[in-house]
Input
Amino acid sequence: MIGLVAGILGVAMPASASVILGSAASFAILGAAAVTNTGVTTVNGDIGVSPGSALSGLGTVSDTGTIHQGDTVASQAQQDSSAAFTALAGLPAVSLLTGEDLGSVGVLAPGVYRFASSAQLTGALTLNFAAGPGSAYVFQIGSELTTATGSSIVVQNGTANSEIYWDVGSSATLGIGSTFVGNIIAGQSIGLNNSASIVCGRAIALQGAVTLQGNTIDDNCGAGDFGSDGYSGSAVATVAEPASGFLLIGGLVGLMALRRARRGPALAALHPGA
Output
């Protein structure tokens, strides 16, 4: 409720992956049908699959988290991811970028950006949190997201509370050697080509598979990540007028928390002995 009230009153509240993603926040990789890997891959965070149970190629995966193969933990994470996907897609956009390449849009401030159909990144995209440190970016993509070979995302003036979400209608494909930042929630599948990396983010596929090919995926967004792992700059003081995306995410956090609070009593009624 606090976040909901803050959003309505225009008070800046930091986004939180653990609130927006729920139990899925502990996962770096979460597939629906399968998770497959070829080559040497490094994962910081849990790996899971549900409702499917196919996991292959994990013998060459270095993982700091826990494997959840078609279990209740992975199932709940999928439910929470689906709820986040719907909530993020419902946010009003501050800018329509349909038909533009993300590598040529210039420096973007925090906010909600929409592509009615597909989105592509060629070259480098710069995201500058200076207008709202600790706030959020949401990219709503109607169909596919594709990044070119060697493309990158550079984040400036972020803090440990800064958040980036990619709400992809169908599938996402990251190009060879590309450096990506943020949480991808794709309605279908996610494929990472050879040596592509996700810095401070996650790959979550709601219906299809997550396919890995010698990648690095790190869901750790601690303050120590800034100045390394593709980030640049340092935190600055919050400005008096927060970015619109900051307020929207504050409201989203409140709505997600309210939804879970309402779900709690219902679950308790179903399982009184829990």
Summary: The helical segments are 2-9, 17-20, 72-89, 244-270. The two ends are 25 Å apart (CA to CA). The chain is about 20% helix and 35% strand. The mean pLDDT is 82.
